[in-house]
Write a structure and sequence with these properties.
The protein is of the alpha/beta class. 30% of the residues lie in helices and 28% in strands. Helix 5 links the parallel strand 4 (113-119) and strand 5 (139-150). It binds S-adenosylmethionine.
């Protein structure tokens, strides 16, 4: 069956065993470490993860910030995260089912975050440019956006050839899109390499970058002039 963009079915099916994959856990550790190094999370920050899945990254960031809004379209991935939150008595993570590729509901219009991050989710969003422009509205002036995703790949990273995804991103093109969305890229760094046997049976290396960007504080700019 042809999957649609942002179809939660695949992730609902995979949720129960998601954390069993050692490469996923290792990647999440690298992503969290890199975000912490570059964004320097603080206890007064409100953070947002879009595409939080089972919370592998969010549960590393949560102890360092005031709150995390963890958002995903898959109820089953969120159920795994909610169970971890309950078992560990975590009070500052709120898991919400929301499609971030669509304009958000009115209850979200007032929200803003000092830190917005994601891991391996951007390639699941069809309209990257439109999405970046929408998410930029949720970033506080001076806030940090940190997204981890695949560099341009051979189109064989995902096992299902029918799954609708971007085949990674060209760093220069993504930097331009971030600029267009009112964000100033700070850095790109390679943070992880998947060595995997792809669906053609060949072992290939797929690199993951972390891009960080900030929202220019216009008030600060005017003040400095
Ligand atoms: C590859 S998984 C990564 C999960 C998690 N970040 C991790 O590192 O384990 C992508 C996640 O993004 C979610 N997702 C896909 N499209 C989304 C959208 N439009 N809005 C919110 N979440 C989305 C999926 O349900 C899935 O949990």
């Amino acid at each position: 069956m042809t999957e649609q963009w942002n179809s939660p079915d695949k992730f609902n099916r995979e949720a129960a065993l998601w954390d069993e994959n050692p490469q996923r856990r290792a990647l999440a550790q690298c992503v969290a470490k890199a975000i912490i190094a570059v964004a320097n999370p603080e206890k007064n920050m409100h953070a947002l993860e879009f595409g939080c899945g089972t919370g592998l990254v969010t549960l590393e960031i949560a102890p360092l910030v005031k709150t995390v809004s963890a958002v995903d379209t898959s109820q089953e991935m969120l159920a795994v995260l909610r169970n971890k939150i309950k078992i560990s008595g975590i009070a500052n993570v709120e898991a919400t089912c929301l499609d971030f590729s669509l304009p958000s509901g009115s209850e979200w219009h007032e929200k803003s975050f000092e830190l917005i991050y994601s891991s391996m989710t951007l390639h699941h969003i069809d309209d990257t440019e439109g999405f970046l422009s929408r998410i930029s509205n949720f970033l506080s002036p001076g806030g940090i956006l940190a997204f981890a995703d695949l560099d341009l790949e051979d189109g064989l990273f995902h096992d299902d050839p029918l799954e609708k995804v971007h085949h990674g991103f060209d760093r220069g093109t993504l930097a331009e899109m971030l600029n267009t969305a009112g964000l100033q890229p700070i850095s790109f760094e390679t943070i992880y390499t998947f060595n995997k046997t792809n669906r053609s049976g060949k072992t290939a290396a797929y690199t993951v970058f972390l891009v960080t960007a900030t929202k220019i504080d216009n008030k600060q700019l005017q003040h400095n002039v």
